[in-house]
Amino acid sequence: MRIWSIHPKYLDAKGLVALWRETLLAKNVLEGKTKGYTNHPQLNRFKKLELPLDGIHHYLMEVHQEATRRNYNFNPDKFNSNFKLTTIDVTSGQVEYERIHLLNKLKVRDIQKYERFKNIISFDIHPMFNIIEGDIEEWEIIHP
Question: What stretches of 85-143 show up as alpha helix (H) in DSSP?
């Protein structure tokens, strides 16, 4: 499960669909509707929120908006648009790790997107996140 801190506009088609699906799974976990993934490290940042479901609905809304910009047909009934806006801190090291991780995926899956984004030094982040200084997050599973 990867719930990206970077903005979904950088994801290729496969990545955006996977993000939607995985975030819906995360929502089900937070709602107590599944026994799997309950201790997944990426969920910790949502679990720490005062209103974890508001956070995941906010996240899904932004992913849905990106999908709509691309003329994808993601079902808006899958999230509640009546939520309290939420912010989550994410470290600068985490954002940089995700930038490099995504570029490595794009190099294999979507060379055009890779070429378009490879020289961007700093990716925009998902609007619900706030960058703070720091290393890669403790919950990240490092891929060589």
Answer: 92-109, 111-117
Residue 42: closest CA among 54, 57, 30? 30
- What letter does residue 106 receive in the DSSP assignment? H
Positive or negative torsion for Cα 42, 73, 107, 59: negative
The answer to the question of residue 142 being in a domain is: no
Angstrom distance (rounded) from CA 55 to CA 46: 6
The residue to which tokens 């079902």 are assigned? 75
144 occurs within a structural domain: no
Number of domains in the chain: 1
In a domain, 1, yes or no: no
- Half-sphere exposure of residue 39: CA atoms within 13 angstroms, side-chain side: 0
Q: Which domain holds residue 66?
A: 8-132
Helix (H) or strand (E) holding 88: strand 88-91
Residue 34 pLDDT grade (very low, low, confident, very high; cuts 50, 70, 90):
confident
60: enclosing H helix or E strand: helix 52-69
Average of per-residue pLDDT across 80-98: 94
The predicted model scores a pTM of 0.93
